[in-house]
Recover the amino acids of this structure.
């Protein structure tokens, strides 16, 4: 047992780690810890605070919900707090929960239901019409995501026979099929795929463009009535029946029981059947059924006393590693995959799992023939987590020195854990390069999406971006779902792209470490493609906003023989190689701006482009070196930091007026 000083130190450590991971999980949809690791830390903190009540503070993560409302969306104050749930990891803890309920003088019925792993969301209906949707946020203040929710087809926009006002709470989730499809698309586009469906659902719901949200295949399960006027419900099971009758998709399985042992039996049954579900679940929930009894029990600062969540332990199996296969991704990254003797895990038989990268293999000390431990991350994706025993005479596995696809030497870049093939002509990368080249911020070829690019590459019609400009109408008509009009439209879009400005072409080439802003700086500074190709590292570093790593990436890209051939072909086919933009002014020379919030007449990208065009630098973070912050509606933490540091804050009109000054 720790003494008070030791406990105080450990509590501080735990709070720091938990709050850091809360921000990653709730706000950035990019957790680093697995659920069971996070749960173990939270449990340890609760136990220490229970042993030393004097250490409990209002800002402890045990006393509040982990999320914070984003500045990207308008804030919504919840009339009914969206609480979290107390977690249990053993049946004894469930029986303790039952004992506390009964000690309050209540003879309960319980409803047991599946705990969906997604993003908690409130839906508000007035006279049957959806008027607002909001995320949980910190439980008191969330984000207004109404327009994005309206784009989700499975969420009813109107309800028949609805009361005058209804607020319900549900969990927005991504079905497994939609998740796999999204990950495949992200990999093709060279983006890092979401780690699990929960992160994918949260990231999709928080998109700035509702059309993207609508394409992601999200769904919702409603699990609670928050407020209701014009009708009455008295039990939880009765409320779910009522909501189902209105046309709302309610919890897929809810079962009324009379004792805690019956509840535990239902939890065991759910656990046995969870592998067959088409969505992620991270436990089961026990709730007091009678709503009046819930009022009597009340809540703590963070949890209701009338409900508890049971978390299933992660399932781990041992098996024998048979081989390690290496594939080349669309970005040139070499990804090793373990092939092992089949094991039945979380409801399915698995025989393969990703090994991430060379460093991961080295840390585990993997050898062919080892006895390894395998689990499913998020109940879906198989992964190797450890080695139980090495095979006799085993030799540590070594990643290949040449690309398995093209035979070119692979490189281990200084800032990456992964090995990468940097050959621009590598067949494994051609599809990803084509998709990027046609994307909106690059050559913006309307109608040339992932599906069409895939067909063009698979049928051998396109091997590099230059081949797009030799395509014929007749070739396009051989593609699936292509008719005369769609073929004509794509031919016109490809022809129009020849006239794009040089910055779009430079970005479309996919130069490592060169994003859209950097491509614009290159185009404006040098004026022609040839001048960019001739520039050395010193000349590139002279550009304000360019560092040595970026400069080196540009030099290395244009030094490749494949790049020279690509540029030559694009030039011969009539693609513009000149900068056609307005001359840059030095009005904002030496000044760094940060744009935050929603502007009335400009997008953030447009405002930042104006800053760069006038000689300034657009940054994403506020510091003492920031000259001005341009703040629109719903400006959040960046505005707060600017005020704290005394950085001048401009409205949009003040910013535009500054543009007109000499």
């Amino acid at each position: 047992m720790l003494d008070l000083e030791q406990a105080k130190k450990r509590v501080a450590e735990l709070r720091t780690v938990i709050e850091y991971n809360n921000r990653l999980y709730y706000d950035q949809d990019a957790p680093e810890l697995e659920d069971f690791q996070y749960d173990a830390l939270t449990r340890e903190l609760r136990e220490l605070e229970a042993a030393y009540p004097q250490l409990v503070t209002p800002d402890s993560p045990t006393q509040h919900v982990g999320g914070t409302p984003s500045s990207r969306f308008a804030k919504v104050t919840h009339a009914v707090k969206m609480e979290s749930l107390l977690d249990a990891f053993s049946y004894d803890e469930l029986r303790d929960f039952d004992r506390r309920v009964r000690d309050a003088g209540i003879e309960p019925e319980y409803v047991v239901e599946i705990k969906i792993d997604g993003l908690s969301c409130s839906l508000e209906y007035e006279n049957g019409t959806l008027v607002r949707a909001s995320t949980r946020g910190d439980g008191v203040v969330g984000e207004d995501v109404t327009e994005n929710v309206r784009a989700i087809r499975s969420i009813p926009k109107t309800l028949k026979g609805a009361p005058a006002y209804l607020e319900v709470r549900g969990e927005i989730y991504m079905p497994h099929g939609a998740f796999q499809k999204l990950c495949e698309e992200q990999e093709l586009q060279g983006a890092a795929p979401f780690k699990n469906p929960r992160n994918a659902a949260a990231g999709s719901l928080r998109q700035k463009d509702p059309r993207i949200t609508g394409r992601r295949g999200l769904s919702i399960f409603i699990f609670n009535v928050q407020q209701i006027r014009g009708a009455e419900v008295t039990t939880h099971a009765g409320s779910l029946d009522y909501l189902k009758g209105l046309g709302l998709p309610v919890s897929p399985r809810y079962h009324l029981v009379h004792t805690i042992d019956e509840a535990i039996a239902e939890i065991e049954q759910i656990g046995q059947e969870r592998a067959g579900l088409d969505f992620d679940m991270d436990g089961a929930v026990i709730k007091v059924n009678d709503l009046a009894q819930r009022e009597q029990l009340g809540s703590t600062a963070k949890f209701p006393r009338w409900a508890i969540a049971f978390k299933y332990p992660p399932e781990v199996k041992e098996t024998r590693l048979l081989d390690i296969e290496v594939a080349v991704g669309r970005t040139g990254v070499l990804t090793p995959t373990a092939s092992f003797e089949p094991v039945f895990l979380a409801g399915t038989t698995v025989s393969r799992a990703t090994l991430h990268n060379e460093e991961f293999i080295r840390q585990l000390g993997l050898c062919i023939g080892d006895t390894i431990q395998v689990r499913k991350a998020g109940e879906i994706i198989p992964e190797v987590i450890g080695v139980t025993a090495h095979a006799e005479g085993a030799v540590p596995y070594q990643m290949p020195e040449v690309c398995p696809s093209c035979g070119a030497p692979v490189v281990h870049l200084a800032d990456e854990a992964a090995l990468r093939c940097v050959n621009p002509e590598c067949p494994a990368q051609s599809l990803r390069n084509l998709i990027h080249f046609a994307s909106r911020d690059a050559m913006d070829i309307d109608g040339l999406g992932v599906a069409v690019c895939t067909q063009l590459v698979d049928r051998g019609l396109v091997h590099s971006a230059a081949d797009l400009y030799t395509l014929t109408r007749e070739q396009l008509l051989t593609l699936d779902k292509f008719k005369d009009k769609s073929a004509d439209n794509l031919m016109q879009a490809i022809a129009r792209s020849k006239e794009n400005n040089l910055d779009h072409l430079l970005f479309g080439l996919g130069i490592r470490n060169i994003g859209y802003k950097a491509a614009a700086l290159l185009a404006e500074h040098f004026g022609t493609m040839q001048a960019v190709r001739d520039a050395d590292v010193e000349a590139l570093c002279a550009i304000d906003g360019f560092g040595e790593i970026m400069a080196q990436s540009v030099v290395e890209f244009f030094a490749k023989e494949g790049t020279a051939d690509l540029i030559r072909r694009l030039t011969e086919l009539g693609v513009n190689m000149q900068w056609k933009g307005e001359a840059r002014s030095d009005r904002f020379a030496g000044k760094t701006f940060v744009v935050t919030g929603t502007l009335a007449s400009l997008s953030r990208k447009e405002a930042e482009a104006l800053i760069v065009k006038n000689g300034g630098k657009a940054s994403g973070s506020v510091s003492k070196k920031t000259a001005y912050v341009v703040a629109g509606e719903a400006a959040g933490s960046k505005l707060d930091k600017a005020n704290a540091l005394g950085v001048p804050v401009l409205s949009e009109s003040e910013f535009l007026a500054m543009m007109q000054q000499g």
The chain has a mean pLDDT of 87. Residues 20 and 31 are 10 Å apart (CA to CA). The first helix runs from residue 4 to 27. The domain at 75-310 is CATH 3.30.470.30 (D-amino Acid Aminotransferase; Chain A, domain 1).
